[in-house]
Design a protein that fits this description.
Layout (H helix, E strand, L loop, with lengths): L7 H27 L4 H21 L2 H18 L7 H22 L9 H7 L15 H8 L8 H4 L9 H5 L49 H30 L4 H30 E3 L1 H4 L2 H12 L3 E6 L4 E3 H22 L3 H6 L6 E10 L2 E8 L6 H10 L5 H5 L3 H5 L22 H11 L3 E7 L3 E9 L4 E9 L2 E6 L3 E8 L4 E3 L2 E6 L2 E7 H4 L11 E9 L2 E7 L1 E9 L13 E6 L5 E5 L1 H7 L8
Parallel strand pairs: 2-4, 9-18, 13-15
Antiparallel strand pairs: 1-3, 4-5, 5-7, 6-7, 8-9, 8-16, 10-14, 11-12, 12-13, 14-15, 17-18
Length: 614
């Protein structure tokens, strides 16, 4: 049924405010389960639900009102110490919160869906009649403190029983309850967050749906960043004017050639500085904290831990680290699969951990950090680690590799077997794992981002999956190389190292040129053959090898010489040349020439015949 709302601006304000409240609510609820005696946290959760209920009541969203009303009643009993927080009660509250998100998503989509809400409400209702003595608190001290009145707060509403305790009659007595954004009657003094007067774009970086309510087409930008951008544009205008004046003087013959050269050199340096600053400001406007993805994981880990019968302490670091919105959009799925893999395959049950001399509660660490022009995301657990022998046996059983291939593999190459399509160490598939698609999805998505993935693991001690991702996909640092007189650009984020090599060290295995590099056999790709470049120099024994990586694989590109490092803007080749193998796009060099940008994913896929002996 289409939404009938006379004031579109009010509706958009409601959606913006509600989205922000619900984004934070999951984190707060998970935190409450660990700190149930925190009155400030409890009051914040209560006020969030109360605000959503009040605004939805005013706008006539009846299904939303019914769910939030009962949820608010349960939270009020917890707030007053009439109930104690338990995993079972939290399960019901989280289920109700999910239903609220779904209903809000329906409103955002522009239609009211007649969803079944009675099952969830029927789980909330018994909690309103449970007497305190019927419930055993988790901690005696908490029980004692919970009997006391809630800690005083700036919100009158947070201190008094809310008016809806008497049921729906209190709502009908005054018509519909006013949302927090509208003028409130004198008796109501709760300083709940205001609905913005103007429509405010929801925060970007997440997909719309039951759990992610943000609009993916907009990004909220700090006003200071807009001010900085405007200042840099002003500086650019000044330099443009200076350049115009120099040109006029030169054309009119009013400037000495030596003086002109000096002034132009100064202008070039200044223009370089200003454009670099301007570029950085624009990139910052596209940047959002990785917290947009990380914030969903406490809830996911809690749910998986209860399903698997495991006890897990999730630690998150670096959630304030920023990266491009386009990258944030793509890393959600691979991170979810890696979290599930760590929970299901990595961490042991409490009894297994105790038997092996570990603490009963397993630790899962999710961390992000900037490193140069990349962001490093790490998922680390202190579980059972990767058993390479078992991995090898399973790969052979499933026909993914042969005995001879396994015998020639290094440990790192054996770790990489878990990324093969169809691979799983589970004998029987479940809803959580065993279908052999999870880690393959991780590899595919990381490849799309021109990222790298590395595994560190020690049997019995745990595992760490390290993702190295580019900060942005629009402007990149690149390594310019020459191949028989032609210049190519290789994304620097994919370059692991460069080598000057005597070609007499190359070997041929199964028709594939390879180079023995430390503990691995590196497959080689000659760019002159890939792009059919005509030879213009006499053959030389020495050449350069650029080692690149994509996801879990490595390959060496054979080039004539290294030109240098340069920041380039990626230009599309158009729809007719969009799918050329090995080419990711093009850029324009300083001398006006067009240089093709090498696609690391295509090169690795095309030249991995001997990579890891597969």
């Amino acid at each position: 049924m289409p939404i009938d709302c006379e004031d579109q601006e009010l509706l958009e304000g409601f959606l913006a405010e509600t989205t922000e409240l619900l984004e934070k609510l999951d984190d707060d609820l998970i935190a409450l389960e660990k700190a149930s005696d925190d009155p400030e946290l409890m009051n914040r959760i209560f006020r969030s639900i109360h605000t959503v209920k009040g605004a939805s009541s005013f706008l006539g969203f009846d299904l939303l009102v019914r769910v939030t009303h009962k949820t608010e009643d349960v939270l009020n009993r917890l707030r007053k110490g009439e109930l104690f927080v338990t995993p079972e009660i939290m399960d019901v509250i989280l289920e109700a919160t999910d239903l609220v998100k779904t209903l809000v998503s329906d409103i955002k989509a522009g239609e009211i869906v007649d969803r079944e809400i009675d099952d969830t409400i029927n789980k909330l209702i018994p909690l309103l009649s449970v007497q305190p003595q019927e419930q055993t608190p988790k901690v005696t001290e908490q029980s004692a403190s919970s009997e006391a009145p809630p800690k005083q707060d700036n919100s009158t509403l947070a201190e008094q029983p809310h008016s809806e305790q008497t049921g729906s009659t209190s709502e009908t007595a005054v018509g519909k309850e006013l949302p927090s954004s509208l003028p409130m009657p004198p008796a109501v003094t709760a300083p709940t967050p205001e609905v913005p007067k103007k429509p405010v774009p929801p925060k970007g970086g997440e997909k719309a749906g039951g759990d992610d309510l943000s609009d993916n087409t907009t990004v909220r930008v700090d006003v200071k960043r807009l001010d900085d951008l405007m200042n840099q544009v002003g500086e650019l205008v000044l330099e443009r004017n200076r350049m115009s004046q120099l040109n006029q003087d030169f054309q009119a013959g009013n400037s000495d050639h030596i003086l002109f050269g000096e002034e132009f050199a100064k202008l070039a340096k200044r223009m370089s500085f200003v454009t670099s600053e301007l570029q950085m400001q624009v990139l910052k406007m596209r940047m959002i904290p990785v917290e947009k993805v990380f914030k969903k994981f406490p809830r996911i880990v809690r749910s998986l831990a209860r399903d698997l019968g495991k006890e897990v302490d999730l630690k998150i670091f670096g959630e304030e680290t920023e990266l491009d919105r386009s990258v944030v959009d793509e890393i959600g799925d691979p991170l979810i699969h890696l979290i599930r893999n760590a929970m299901d395959h990595g961490l042991e049950t409490p009894d297994e951990r105790v038997a092996s001399g570990k603490q009963r509660i397993g630790t899962l660490v999710l961390a992000a950090v900037h490193e140069g022009n990349s962001i490093i995301i790490s998922i680390k657990d202190d579980g059972r680690g990767i058993d390479t022998e078992r991995v090898g046996r399973k790969a052979i059983e499933k026909g993914l590799i042969t005995e001879d291939q396994l015998a020639a593999m290094t440990q790192r190459e054996m770790f990489d077997l878990i990324f093969l399509p169809g691979f799983s160490t589970k004998d029987k598939a479940s809803d959580l794992s065993g279908r052999g698609v999870g880690m393959d999805v991780v590899k595919t998505n990381i490849k799309k981002l021109n990222g790298l993935i590395e595994i560190k693991s020690e049997k019995g001690m745990g595992s760490e999956f390290i993702l190295r991702l580019p900060l942005t996909l629009a402007i990149i640092q690149s390594l310019l190389v020459e191949v028989e007189g032609e210049i190519y650009s290789i994304p620097l984020a994919s370059v692991l190292e460069t080598l000057r090599v005597d070609q007499r060290e190359f070997h041929v295995i199964g028709g594939q040129e390879v180079l023995k590099l430390r503990d691995m056999v590196l497959p080689l790709v000659r760019l002159e053959q890939v792009f059919n470049v005509k030879r213009c120099h006499e053959p030389d024994n020495f050449c350069y090898v650029v080692v690149i990586g994509s996801a879990d694989k490595r390959v060496g590109l054979v080039v004539t010489r290294l030109v240098g490092q340069q920041e380039v803007a990626i230009k599309s080749l158009g729809k007719y040349l969009a799918n050329v193998s090995g080419i990711a796009g093009s850029t324009i060099l300083g001398d006006g020439r067009v240089a093709l940008i090498v696609d690391p994913v295509g090169m690795v896929d095309g030249g991995d015949g001997a990579a890891a002996g597969r």
